[in-house]
Specification:
The chain has 248 residues and is of the alpha+beta class. The protein contains five helices and eight strands. Helix 2 packs antiparallel against helix 3 and helix 3 packs antiparallel against helix 4. The longest helix has 16 residues. This is Integral membrane protein.
């Protein structure tokens, strides 16, 4: 299966288990794109391997290569936790660049690690920007797309042995200002099924963050093809491509 972070939505910290991003508002209808069904990219796993670290060799994208970080890097950072926990989701992050990156990580993890359309819609209701009117529907559709990609029905109980998870390891800042930031997250996207076992992929999630209603919220994902940046987290290639690791 090939995944792209822009397909998570219907619109289309150390290694953590990666999840199929099916909601990130039109982000990745394929692995990363499922989350929100819009955009994003993931590198394929090395053929014949179930090792999360065995990612296919880095290959250049068929589209013009995207640039690496376009704003000054903060260097390695420690993610912070939101001050309020609502139905399992942390919200109310600091009004800072680190707060924006931390919120992006929290939201994509929640959106990409569920096969429950209702849960995805709830995350969108809590975390999407007020101007993102279709976020809840796109998030739910993203989860449904992910289920279908795993061979499941769009709705209903999840059979034992099926799961997805997104675990971001590194970041890049494409742009930032006092009230906005575009954050690229390099993550492990992990899917598990009874037939194939657990398989991990490297995926890039382009989270567009906006300060609104006293918190960082997400907008529709950037539709740029970042597949050329979906490389083995922590590798020399990742460092060369501008990825900055999170600290513990």
């Amino acid at each position: 299966m090939t995944f792209t972070s822009n397909e998570f939505m219907a619109k289309s910290k150390g290694p953590k288990r990666a999840v199929i991003a099916v909601f990130v508002v039109a982000v990745v209808a394929t692995a990363v794109g499922y989350v929100l069904g819009s955009g994003g990219s993931a590198a394929g796993q090395a053929p014949g391997s179930n090792d999360p670290g065995a990612v296919a060799p880095h290959q250049s994208s068929p589209v013009p290569a995207v640039s690496s970080t376009t704003v000054a890097s903060l260097g390695p950072i420690r993610l912070v936790q939101g001050s309020v926990l609502v139905t399992g989701l942390y919200t109310e992050f600091p009004h800072s660049t680190i707060g924006a990156i931390s919120a992006a990580d929290e939201y994509i993890t929640a959106l990409g690690s569920t096969l429950d359309p209702d849960r995805a819609a709830t995350v969108a209701r809590l975390a999407a920007d007020p101007s993102y009117a279709g976020a809840q529907n796109e998030a739910a559709t993203g989860a449904q797309n992910t289920r279908k990609a795993l061979g499941l029905k769009a709705t209903g109980p999840v059979p034992q042995g099926y799961s997805v998870e997104v675990s971001a390891v590194s970041y890049q800042l494409k742009s930032e200002s006092a009230d906005s930031a575009e954050v690229l997250l390099l993550a492990y996207f992990t899917e598990a099924t009874p037939s194939q076992g657990t398989v991990a992929h490297a995926a890039v999630f382009p989270m567009v963050m906006h300060w609104a209603a006293g918190d960082w919220k997400f907008l529709p994902m950037d539709s740029t093809d970042y597949s050329s940046l979906a490389v083995q987290p922590g590798s020399a290639q990742a460092a060369s491509d501008g990825w900055i690791n999170f600290t513990q």
